[in-house]
Each structure stands twice: as structure tokens, then as C-alpha cells.
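cache lookup: miss for this entity combination. No prior model stored, computing from scratch. Input as submitted by user K.M.:
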Amino acid sequence: MSKIKILTNGIIKDNPIFVLLLGMCPTLGTTSSAINGLSMGLATMFVLMCSNVVISLMKNVIPDKVHIPAYIVIIATFVTVVQMFMEAYLPALYETLGLFIPLIVVNCIVLGRAESFAAKNTAFDSLLDGIGIGLGFTLALTLLGACREFFGTGSVFNLNIFPEEYGALLFVLAPGAFIALGYLIAIVNKLKTK
Amino acid sequence: MAYLMMIIAAIFVNNIVLSQFLGICPFLGVSKKIDTALGMGMAVTFVMTIATIVTYLLQHYVLDPMNLSYLQTISFILVIASLVQMVEIILKKVSPSLYQALGVFLPLITTNCAILGVAILVISKEYSLLESVVYAIATAIGFTLALVLFAGIREQLSLVSIPKGMKGIPIALIVAGLLAMAFMGFSGIA
């Protein structure tokens, strides 16, 4: 497999949200605006890249029987790094994303890529896979966040497009997350079958 | 009275699935039949209660006195993962019938973010041990309620014709959205 293909695979063909349907909790919980979705995506991408590299380097050292707990410890370490970094330098963002930062540990995407890709490939390929899948995840989250922000408050990335009074607040609240994601996946399905 | 308010708030107003977005994976994954939804709900209730007690004790008697609170995420997830494994082994030995009912769901629970989420939430909300347990049980009931309601709707949904692109997950998400909207009606009670 060529290096470029590994990178682009995660963005389109194996997009974690729209195609693999993994990691739904942060997808729905942190996308009340485009900027929140983007930052959650980047945080997950960082964890994904680091854990992929470390796991692929250590795959021959870790005994087979304890490989899942070992992976979880590696992932949790990087999540803690992200958590402490955000708390120190981006306290406002840390406050908004809240619980979903430590919950990157149980994001199925991270463990899923460790198991299905990093455990079988070289460190460099795993890094590329981490970047690809991470970008796909970030893209999906930003798109969903942008849609919800647009319909809910009339702006995207705080850039006002139509007056806020005309927005349907519902899209910023919980039900809007489910409905917007449902329609986005339906649109992707439609495009895929063409 | 305070406890009653807390229970109502955790089940209806701040429903863990429909307003806090935790535990979406099992919510979408094992909600095709009411029976399995009920089984999953019971398994989650069981594990969530025990996990909350254990992580609470871990936080207050090990991590806090030793200034190790930055190890919270790592230690909690390890404790939960091994706890689930242990519950599985004990249940197999002690109550084979209960194991039969819950067995298949137990391995799935480790990656259920609701468990870790509640364990971290009760620490950050600074609940006492009793409050934590009540909160965990009420949250788990809320999870079960949402799951069973959703499964009931999906059973009916499988009988109607749906546009091709909307089949499966998209329509399920939209139904979940409507359900969340219904639950929003509870806000203001507690």
C-alpha cells in the first residue's frame, strides 16, 4: 500500500464517523459549534498519532495475552498529556469539552486503529494512518459542528451569516445533534451509492 | 427529598444518553430488540454501581492522599476493565443463570463511556459515597429507560418502508433525536 493511500484512506474511504460509525459519543457531545468540533478532533488526532506510533514500536515487546490492557495504558497516558496541556494553556476550551477529554480513552476509534492497524504495521505507516484517521475524524466533527452552528445560531466559526433570531436553537441542543448527524450520514450514504 | 430530586434529574432531565451523549455505542448497537436492550441495561446498572463505588474509594483513599490525581484517567480505566473481567468470572461461578442473561454484554461494557464518564463525574461533582451510589444507580436506570424505549421504537421501525439512504443508522439517529426532544420536556422539573 502506498503511503499516500494510507493517509487518504482514513479521510474518505474509512472515515471513522460517516463510514465506520465509531466514536459517536464525542461526535454528538462536542459539536455544538464548529470550533468545539475542530478542537475535539485535533485532540483525538494527537492521541491517535502518538498511540499508533508507540504501539507499533512496542508491538513485539507486549505479550499477546495482555495486549489490550497494555494498549489502554499507552492511550490513557497520551490522553492525560492532552488533558494537562489543555487545562494549563486552554482553560476555556477545557471547560467546554469537559468530560469528553478524559473519555478519549474509551473512544473506539483509538483502540480500534491500535488493534487493526498499528499492531501490524511499521511505526511510520502507523503515524500516517493516525494522521489520516485523525483528519477524517476532525473533518467530520468540524462539518457536523458547522452545520449545527449554522442552523442553530446562523453563524459558522462565529462568522455571522444570517441573523441569530432566525436560527433554530434546537440544533445547538441535544436533539439537534442526533438529527443533524442522521441527515449527514444519510447524505454520505446517498453519495456513496451513486 | 434531595435524593429524590437527584434521582429524577439523573433519569429524566439529564438523561445520560439523550442529553449527555454518553454510552451512544451500545445505545445504537444493542437496541434492535427490547429483550437485549433490557439485558444490556441491567448489565450496565450492575457494573456502573460497582465501578462507581470502587473508583470513588480509589480516588479518595489512594489517589488524593498520595497526590496522584493526575493518574485518574489511567487508573480508573484499568480498574473498570479489570472489574468487568472479575464480575464476569464471579458471576459465572456464583450465578450461572444471571451470567447467561448478562454474559454477552459484559465484555462490551469496558468500552462503554458511560461507566468511565459517571465515575469521573461523581468525583468532579464532589458527591459523598452514598450520593455517588444513588447517582450511579439513577443514571443507569435512565440509560436502561432510554435504551428500552429506543428499542421499542426500532422494533416498529423495522416494519415500515424507509428511503434507501436513510436505512439503518441515519433513521435511528433521527428517531433518537425525536426521543431526546421528548425528554427535553422534562427539563424544569428538577
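stored under new cache key. Residues 34-63 of chain B form the longest helix (30 residues).
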